């Protein structure tokens, strides 16, 4: 048995802001994927995954909700036969490793599931997001449900607000010099402590004001520019966003990258922003000249996401 593939995701814009109801834009990232597998040859990694799925099975068995029903008998049988989640998605990197797992479990075991092939009304999208939020809370304590939604649909999703989501198209890639890229911090990040830190910061009136005004304004402008292919304007807004994040989200940026972040803003060679909750994992970068940026950041691992 090998289940369908579910991809990683990248939240291009909107990290933290979407917790507080501002805009976001998430896209599938097909370089990494995962699938449910049953095999006779079980490795140590597969055994470990099977044990974790066993705990997840217990969590879903005790879930009190009218939103979704799972075929738990089949899930139990597959686990007993050694099923595991075979994934290349790095964990703790902000690219949706648990989201892909949740999407694969929903796809295989949810009764009366909403499928990608039907007309995805806003009501259906919100229901899916709610179901995925419940399912993914096992991993993070609190989840928006967006990562599994993105992985399940394998479509770019525009988040207008908590109750207003829509699949969207993004401009096709061009063979230009510019790029969106991932910078590997080589540090594992944990979502839960970062979100707790953010929630504590939200108690501060000045921080809330910054989030509702500066952060939301630049995030919304970046999303508008990206979706409409306004590359010149996009870089101006990403620079402003990069500054706001460096000034106000420093604890979420690994300290070894504060200078690298600042250097990009000062030279305009590239701009960095958080990818997911931060604290490690990937950092998202935007550059007008990817080859030049690769030379400047030659000591780091970079991955290409999208070309302008």
UniProtKB/TrEMBL annotation:
Keywords: Kinase, Transferase. GO terms for molecular function: ATP binding; kinase activity. This is Mevalonate kinase. It comes from Lutibacter agarilyticus.
